[in-house]
Hints:
five-stranded mixed beta sheet; globular; alpha/beta
Amino acid sequence: MIEKFLEGNERFREDDFGKNPEHYEALASSQHPVVLWIGCSDSRVDPERITGSQAGEIFVQRNIGNIVPVHDWNFATVLEYAIHHLKVGDIAICGHSDCGAIKGLDEESDDAYIPLWLNNAMEAKRRVESRLQVPKNPDEEKLRRRLIEIENVGLQLEHLRTYPPVRIAEKEGQVRLHGLYFDLGTGELKKIF
C-alpha cells in the first residue's frame, strides 16, 4: 500500500503541485487556513475532498466520532493555535452518516480506550432516546442512529464552547461556529447548526 501512496504522490506532484507552483511555494513557508475543521477519522470523510478545498484552506482536527473532548490538552492546543495564531474565522464540526462511533455507543466492548472516548458522545444518545420510542424495524433504527449522529454534532458544539479561547473569540465576533453533516450515500454536505 505504501508503494501505491508513493506512486500517488508522483501523480500529485505532476498534476497538482507542478501545475500550481505559486500556491505551493507560498504554503512551503506559512499557512493561512480560514477554518478549523473538527471531523471524524473515518476514511470516507476527507475534508478537503468533500468540500473541494485546496491545500492550506482547512486546519484539521480529526478523531473517532468528531468529538470535542472536554478538558483535553491536545484538543485545547489545536483550538488555541487555530484561534490565536492562525486567526481562523470559522470552526466547523462535521458529523456523518454510518458513523462507527455512534454505532459503538450501542455495543459492549473489551477495548480499553474506545469506550472511554465514546463517553464524550453518550449524552447525544440519551437525548435522542428520551424523545423516541424503541425502534421496531431497521428503518426506525437507521433513523435513530442518524438522529444521534446529528445530535452529537450539537453536543460537540456545546463542548466546544466550554473552552475559553472559543467562548471569548465567539463573544467578540472573531469566530463563528458551525455544525455540518455529510451524507455518505448522497455526497451532500449540509449545515445543521
